[in-house]
Batch of 4 targets.
Target 1
Amino acid sequence: MGFRLEHTEPVGDGLRRVTKERLDDALERLDGLADLEPAEAQEAIHAVRKRTKEVRGLLRMARPGLGREYAKANAGLRDAAHELAGMRDAQAISATFADLRRAADVGGDGALAAVQAVLDDRAGVATGAAVDADDPRVASARAALAAVRKRVKRWDLPDGFDAVAEGLATTFRRGRKALREAQRDPSDDNLHEWRKAVKHLWYQVRLLEPTAPSVLGPLVERLDDLSDALGDDHDLVVLVDLLESTPEAFGAEGQAGVGVELARRQQADLRRRAFGLGARVYAEKPKAFAQRLELYWKVDRDLGQEPRVGTIADLAELGDQPPRTVERERKFLVDELPALDGDGDRIRQGYFAIDGHVAVRVRERSGSASTMTVKAGSGATRTELEWELVPEVFAALWPLAEGRCLDKTRYEVRVDGGIAEVDVFGGALDGLCLVEVEFDSEEEMAAFVPPAWFGDEVTDDDRFTNAHLAVHGLNGG
């Protein structure tokens, strides 16, 4: 679902869901290192480190409600990221220096080209080492992440905004204070502390963006810009430290010094820009900032998802309808259920209009907004249009589907090629289990190889469409 709390999703449930999804992705990437080429392995390591940082930002927002669990989770994530840090740093420094040369338009400078060659060699050595899945650092990082993942179910978090209000204000306060310290004394250490605080706030606002996308979306983008600038500044700090501490590694006397001078000039410009943006991002007081985001959250719960707004002409041109979408999925019976994590999402859906291969349904799903969906066509590729419903509208429509309803619990299971959605049916369909996999393209769908626990494919068997099952059951015509 992405790094965000979904519309109407209870806060505590959402924080646990996002954490599990991010850690599952990180663990899967570490498990797959042995099958990757060196450059791909580096990207996987980078993605794993990003996942740990995202979850640490989430943890800081939820810290007041986590109690002792916060320290355990934060330490595990910190340790995992530390184990993998050295595998990525050499590539980051090499790329940063290349960007620096392009920005200064000095690509042909002999001294700088020589420095670049040394940095590229170091990156190549690190890339070759990272592909070894048996590296003890990989094993240690995986164990740390797995331990955190196992404890997520113990998190006892409230479902309202109280779960994050205090942590959000604290993160904002920390960033505001760090900005002032960096303005007073723009040392490398002070800029690094501010960078970490900005990153955490960026992650936290991303989680809450769906409550007010027109307002929080631009803030997410500006925090991303600020984080990128401070990230580049930090990479330049590491680069300068390397050049100054081992100048002999970079060839003729004075070559490293040319690189240091160029890096420091770029840092000065980055910091000037960052201070200008930071002063605006952190203009509010922390308590006021947290209260403002809480009001967005309350409005979202009271009024529903934010609609598009504009002039009559604008809305007539855009329409207030969902875009025409194409659903590509393959459906299978289940020979043997795999290990299913958590309680799954409870779904009840009913059909109040079915005409051949066109069906209109309403659905209520735990942790998500209720929806009305129109599906047309049959087989693997169909048209799908969907509208989100406020609870009152769903309650009014549900009785119209009487006698054409079904209940099921949905679980997500990672497979090669994407996410498999396993539906375990209840009620009159008790005992039926189906698994679906959605795809972004016809090519991906055709190339998919079902894992061993999948049973017979029923994609083109109309008896296993949800609409047919809701009306006729398992043995109907």
Target 2
Amino acid sequence: MTDYEAKRAYISKDEAERYDEVRFSHTQGKMLDTIEKESVSNLLKNGCSLGLILDLACGSGRFVEMISGSYDGVKLVGADISKEQLKVAKKRLRNNRSLEGLVLCDAEFLPFRNGSFDCTITIRFMGLLPPAVRQTILKEIHKVTREEVILNYPNSISASIILRILWKLERTRPEFFPVSPSSFCKKIRAIGFEIVDKQTPLIIPPRRFPKIFLNNIKIINSLGKHSLIGLLSEQHFVLLKKKCNNESNRS
């Protein structure tokens, strides 16, 4: 198993219990939470298979909760490397009838049979993975998923990264690993995926700005969904579909 910073960053009891509060309890965080959930929901609506879904790096279970509350008959499994995060998720989802189970595991070695899930969702995870680890985990996801994958990744040519370089701002820990859209597309095609839909809702992430600017930020971000400036979105949310075996073998 590979060791990297993010693997250790979220496993403590204190981090697990404070995770949602620190990130999503304030006004800016609530806006970010809404943007992320709307992006995933929009991709799910694009013909995504809604039988059995894996939420990988499920954390506190907020996406399990969101999906189960929006789609009848869906079943979900949550998986995470943090036992403490899974405890928080278990408490949050204790009355959730769509939850099939919570699994403690390392995403580099997923303990599921080939094609176990109709769809896999993994949000706020890819950007924390060093490139080689990201490829390993994407291959594991490809193995256990029958149809589609929804994920987001940090864009290396985003407006926020450009501004961070110009203003010489330091990135808060843990370290993150952005990738350009063209490079990401090439790498996932080599694994056996193709991008069939994309959401680009974060030209200006709300977390770094005072409340007074949030309405303007909301307008600019909405423009990113429907124009070329979406290429500068900090995060790209994508719907991947598995290619057929013979096409994948030619890649």
Target 3
Amino acid sequence: MLFSGAVGSFCGGYLNDWLVRLTGERKWSRRMLAAPALASAAVGMVLSIQLDDPWPAALCAAWACLAIHLSLPSGWSVVAEISGPHTGAIWGLLNAMGVVGAYLSPIFMGAVVDHFKGLGHVGRAQWDPAYYVYAGLLLIGAVAWLFVNPEKSIALRKEEPCGSQ
């Protein structure tokens, strides 16, 4: 899994740059990479829990990891493009948000597993439902990418005083 994530990040950077050069614009180039990558990661995650044979299931899970990481360079590029002079603050905010998700994810997983165990489920029947939630979140992320605009800065223009409309 870690290897597929590394491959995804590496290839995502090249694909990200290649799409911008190919299309000549950033907005749809970023969207064309990130949205399908996250959607295919959701599909890979769902397939990985549907398959009983461990090798195909592991390959689907590895694809999900690769595809998630394939979208990361688009996100990094967008942050660099929209944050203006506030790049450090925006990176810090995004990193903090990621830490919250990383902290809550194992708590959520444990709660789901315990809940389904309490209902009498054993083995995969305890674990699989949480992965459907994660796949759903990936699909929400894919749809959200369709609205990302790296051409619109979040920084105030010099002529706009803070708090003006």
Target 4
Amino acid sequence: MSVNKKPHPHGTASARLLKLARSRSLVRTRDVAKLGIHTGELTRLTRAGELERLGPGRYQRPGAPVSSEHHDLAIATSAVRGSVICLLSALRFHGIGAQLPHQVWIAVPRGTRVPRLDAPPIRVINISPALFDIGVEVHRIEGHGTKVYGVARTVADCFRFRNTVGLDVALEALSESWRAKRLDLNHLNRVAKRLRVQRVMQPYLEMVVL
């Protein structure tokens, strides 16, 4: 005599959650909540070894392959809501210069509470809220909309934070992006003026352009 087994009470939710985890490199608590799945499923599947916890509100499949060279950028900006990839990490993203940062450089509005991350290591740059949104672009990385400062903003920021990244890095960013025709001078000057770094950058710009 066959016995009809009752479906596991968590079966449907678990299946949906694992399907989500297979479709992307990172699962966030808020993604799960939007699907109408109780976030307790994340804890249950983690205990069962079906998921692993990367940090607060972030999970992935155990041993999930890294699908792009910008994996850490997607992880960092997903963990720190509202953050923007900046400076050395933005240069790396745009393929400018020879910088290979061992941290993910992110900008946040001044006063933002930044959660502690186990990985990846991050370098936080605090930006005035009035200047924060200048030059922000959104790029799809591993299925996530990731905010990255554009080339002009990044070059201007390198001069603005030259004492942090080094003047040599700022000069390299300016000269390489200009040679690669990645810069529009009018746009760069407008951005630099708004960031109050135009006068600092102008002598170097004249050397590169002339």
